[in-house]
Amino acid sequence: MNRMGAHRPIETGQEAREYISSRSVFGIKPGLSRTVWLLDAMGHPERGLRFLHIAGTNGKGSTCALLYAICEAAGMRTGLYTSPSLAGFEDRVVVRGMPIGEDRLVYHTRAIATAIASLDADSPLQPTAFEVATVLAFCHFADQKADVVVLETGLGGRYDATNVVVPLVSAITNVSMDHMEILGDTIEKIASDKAGIIKQGRPVVTAASGAALGVIANVAREMNSPLVIYGRDFRSVEEERSLSSQRFSYWGRRRDLLGANLSLLGPHQVVNASVALAVVELARNAGLAISDDAVRAGLRQVVWPGRFEVAGSDPLIFLDGAHNEAGAIALQSTWETLRLPKGILIVGCLKEKDISAMIPHFAAIAKEVIVTQPAQSRALDADELKLAFQTYQRELCITVADSIADALSIALASRAGKGPICVTGSLYTVAEARAKLGDRRDGVDVTPVS
C-alpha cells in the first residue's frame, strides 16, 4: 500500500494555507464521495447546522452577502462561506463578522490533514483543495455554534462540495454561459447542474428565465420542492439611485418591503436583493426569526467588495469583477443607469473566458482601455486581449500594461478629461487592484510610470 504518510506538522496559519493549497494538485473532480468521506472522518459537523444554500452563474456571492447581513442584523450567530476571496483564505469563512482566526484555521486543518494521511496516495477519496476548504468551514461553523450558515456553491451545484447539506431554503440566482468546459455547453446543461442543489421537499427561489427556468422547474417538480420565481411570485422596482446606494420596493408572496435602501449598486443588485428577500420569507416559515427592521438594516449595511465597488472618489474609481457576458452586461447597465461618462477601463481576464462576448459591453463604456493580466497562471496574455479589443473596435484607444499596478499608474496619470476609472475582467484582477489601491490610501504612492 502506498500511503501519503505523515504530513508535515501544521503549526502556523501560513502552513495551514499551504496545506490546503497543496490539495490543488488533485484538480477539480466531479462527485461528492470525497467530501462525504472527509465529513464522516470529521464526525459530520454539518449535521447540526441550518443552511441557506445559494447557486447561480452571477449574483450568488452578492445574494449570500445580503442574506448574511440580514441574518446578522436579526441578531443571529451567522456563518458565511464564499469563494473566491479578494483578501485571503480566512475571509471565505466568517462567523459574526470575524474571519476564521489563525488558531482555529491551524486546529481544523491539522485534524483534516491527519484524516487524509490515512488514505493511500492514489486513493480515489483524496480530496481536492475546495473540498478540504468546505469541510474545514463546516467544522468551524459547528465549533462556533452558528445559528444559520449562508453557503455559496463553488462551481455549478450537483457535484459541488457544498451540495452535501439539506438546507432550509435553496436559491439559484440565474443561469448564463460560464464554465462551459465543466458544466456543459448549453444553457440547459448548465441549469441542470445548478438545479442539482434542489433537495426533496425543500423550497427553492430563482430569478432564472427562459430555458434555464424550464429545467429548474422540472427538477423542482420531480423533487416535490416549492418553486418561487422572480416576476411571477415576487417582484421589485428600482426607485432612486446614487453612487452610494439605491432605493427599491419589493412585493413578495406574503410580505412587501417598500422604499428599502440598498448599499449595493446596479439594477442587477435589486434583483439579487429580491431573491434574498424571497429566501428570507421562506426561511421565516422554517423558523428563522427575522424582522422587517432587520431586513432593512441588512440591505442598508451590506458590503460586498469588488462588485461595482466605489474604491475612490477623486478620481472616481470602480472595481467590478465582471468575468463573463452576463457580468459585463450588468456592468454596462449599471454604468449607464448612473449616467456616468465613458471612462478608462483596466481589463485583465482569464484564458478560459469568452472574451469576445464581454468586449462589446466593456467597449460601450470606455473612452480608453488599458489591458493587462493578473498574476495568475490562467491569465490571458495582455497582447492577446489587446488584439481581441482591436478586432472588435479598431479605433478604440488601447494601451498594454505589464502589471495591474502599472495599469493603475497609467490610468491615474492620464485620466484628465477621460472620466472615471474602472478595473474589471476578473475577480483576480480586481483583488490585485484593490490591494494596490489600499496601499495608496494608506500612503504608499502609486507612482505614474513614464
Low-confidence stretches: 439-450
**CA-based shape:** globular
Biggest sheet statistics: 8 strands, mixed
**Biggest sheet, strands in spatial order?**
4-3-2-5-1-6-7-8
Mean pLDDT: 92
Q: Superfamily at the CATH H level of the largest domain?
A: Mur-like, catalytic domain
| Strand composition percent | 15-25%
Radius of gyration: 22 Å
Helix content: 25-40%
Shape-level CATH architecture of the largest domain: 3-Layer(aba) Sandwich
Structural class computed from helices and strand pairing: alpha/beta
End-to-end C-alpha gap: 60 Å
The CATH class of the largest domain turns out to be Alpha Beta
Descriptive notes:
This protein has 450 residues and is α/β, with parallel strands linked by helices. It folds into two domains: 289 residues, UDP-N-acetylmuramoyl-L-alanine:D-glutamate ligase; 133 residues, Alpha-Beta Complex (Protein-Tyrosine Phosphatase, Chain A). It has 15 helices and 17 strands. It has an eight-stranded mixed β-sheet, with helices on both faces. A six-stranded mixed β-sheet has the order 12-13-17-14-15-16. A three-stranded antiparallel β-sheet has the order 9-10-11, covered by helices on one side. α3 crosses α9. The longest helix is centred in the middle third of the chain and has 19 residues. It is globular, with a radius of gyration of 22 Å. The C terminus is likely disordered.
